[in-house]
Amino acid sequence: MNDAPDQSFPVRIASLVPLAPIARAEFARRFIIEDAEPASLGTLCPDVLLLSPAVRVDAAFLAGLPASVGALATYSVGLDHIDLDAVRARGLPMFNTPGILSNAVADQAMLLLLAATRRMAEATALLREGRWTDLWSSHILGVELAGRTLGIYGLGDIGRRVARRATAFGMRLVYHNRRRAVDEAGATFAATAEEFLASADILLLAAPSTGETRNFLNRERLALARDGLVVVNIGRGDLIDDDALLEALESGKVRAAGLDVFRNEPQIDPRFLARSDVVATPHIGSATEEARRGMATVLCDAIEAWRRGERPANRIT
């Protein structure tokens, strides 16, 4: 099943992803692409199945695929939705989109960081609700970034790009990884979570979801953090214990939060949306024209390489 399709015929792709027009155009320029539902795959006989994080790929899902499917491509960097062991057992190549969306997500991190520290949700609501009636010198006071310490949990490609942006704002940098990074982007390594949290004024969660990182920010660790901490999450929703963060926001231990990712997306905890000290966006960190086009291009390149019998760098299985 993992043999590449006959090169004398165009590759047929069945897409379970609602693609942006600029991305779909790239696939359509190089292959035959059709929108699909899992139940219709048998009639389409695709060579490649295009997935998104909304599709859970496990043994049961794979068992229902038609025999024509020779490869899987996920329109994402993250692989949380994929049982890789099951994919390997089926003998299918899997491609993803590493590196392409790092700039977009780093920009989103800075947007959330600025919006949280400058209380943007409150300021916008004040205007929209017609409550701006005077110039108040003491109203909606935020904090400046210069001189503050940004703690980055997960100094990978995205974390490094955020670090370089934060440096331009005059911030100090500290990070915590499982092991010391080769490229530290000017940040200081904190070997323990305790040292890390005690050093940060603003916490950026930029790690993937793993057994080690889930619930990293819990009650015990929040107790170690500085008072007035600002929390920004562009990693995965399950890095945070929701109840613990909400309690810390209520008590003032956490000043504000900027969140682009949540548990159980898109059915997120409504308590976050009810708070004026939370800036929330619907997992749009990679939602730029450049990133969406680039994600399509890197998957198209991988599919063409696979078709030629080559192994592309972004092949996961």
UniProtKB/TrEMBL annotation:
Residue ranges of domain D-isomer specific 2-hydroxyacid dehydrogenase NAD-binding in the record: 111-285
Keywords: NAD, Oxidoreductase
Molecular function terms from GO: glyoxylate reductase (NADPH) activity; hydroxypyruvate reductase [NAD(P)H] activity; NAD binding
Keyword Chaperone appears in the UniProt entry: no
Matching Pfam families: 2-Hacid_dh, 2-Hacid_dh_C
Domain D-isomer specific 2-hydroxyacid dehydrogenase catalytic: 47-316
SUPFAM superfamilies named in the record: Formate/glycerate dehydrogenase catalytic domain-like, NAD(P)-binding Rossmann-fold domains
InterPro entries per UniProt: D-isomer_2-hydroxyacid_DH, D-isomer_2_OHA_DH_cat_dom, D-isomer_DH_CS, D-isomer_DH_NAD-bd, NAD(P)-bd_dom_sf
Coiled-coil regions, chain positions: none
GO cellular component: cytosol
Protein family: Belongs to the D-isomer specific 2-hydroxyacid dehydrogenase family.
Name of the protein this chain belongs to: D-isomer specific 2-hydroxyacid dehydrogenase, NAD-binding
Species per Swiss-Prot/TrEMBL record: Rhizorhabdus wittichii (strain DSM 6014 / CCUG 31198 / JCM 15750 / NBRC 105917 / EY 4224 / RW1) (Sphingomonas wittichii)
